[in-house]
Amino acid sequence: MSANLLHRLARNAIPRARVLSTSAPTATKRHWRPATAYTAIGVAAVVAGTLGAIYPPIPLTILFPRAAPGPPNPDSPESKEYCRDLEKEMLDLPVLKELRESADHQDWYETRPYQGMPDERRVNSLTAGTLRGPGKLAVTPLIRVRHDESESMVFLHLGRGLCGHDGIIHGGLLATLLDESLGRTVRDPPKRPRHSYSSPWTKGYQQPA
Predict the structure, then answer these.
(1) What letter would DSSP give residue 106?
(2) What percent of the chain has pLDDT over 70?
């Protein structure tokens, strides 16, 4: 019995060898999941489309402008309120306030063309009558002029109803307004002719207005 006990003790005293493997573990192959990929692409497309609709790139707004309603009825209360708001916004422009508070502000005066024109003459005038109203020339332009008539600045609002391509003011209208502004400079000072005409001239636009 003692021999059997010694045999068991000797067997338990011998450390058991552990089989250790030094080979790299086999990489688990990932399978492509079409449903997950299509879902990710769909979510990305929805996010990109939403951001593009809210903040469209400028070239796209020029090529594919959003449709806008036409000019409203000028005699409606909403139109009159709209014109009053535009007038206030124009008078509150930072650049206009800065000019009025500049050191040489006494060298300038302000005028509002067409404001005192009789209705019987206004109806047959392009810029004073035909193009007047909300969505077009909604407010009377404001002009700051030096007392010696050597310089002038014109402030006006152009509505969406004056566009050539939707969202871009018609280039011919810009030329007309520039022509009238220059004509006023020629006619208004004393000792200058009261009648003038436009000679041939070439214009070039830097960017859409």
Answers:
(1) G
(2) 67
CA distances to 9, 56, 59 from 63, rounded to whole Å, are 94, 11, 6
Buried b (16+ CB within 10 A) or exposed e, 78-95: ebeebbeeeeeebeeeee
| Confidence (pLDDT) at 98 | 94
Of residues 184, 179, 175, 200, the one with CA closest to residue 144: 184
Using one digit for the tens of pLDDT, what is the confidence trace for 69-117? 777 888 889 889 999 999 999 999 999 999 999 999 999 999 998 888 8
Q: Which residue has the tokens 């005066």?
A: 109
pLDDT (tens digit per residue) in 11-63: 554 455 454 455 555 555 555 567 777 777 877 777 776 766 666 676 666 66
Domain ranges of the chain: 38-63, 77-187
Distant-in-sequence, close-in-space partners of 160: CB < 8 Å, separation ≥ 6: 68, 71, 135, 166, 167
User: What pTM did the predictor assign?
Assistant: 0.61
Question: One-letter amino acid identity for 24?
Answer: A
Q: Is 142 helix (H, G, I), strand (E, B) or coil?
A: strand
d(CA 145, CA 189): 11
Q: How many residues does the chain have?
A: 209
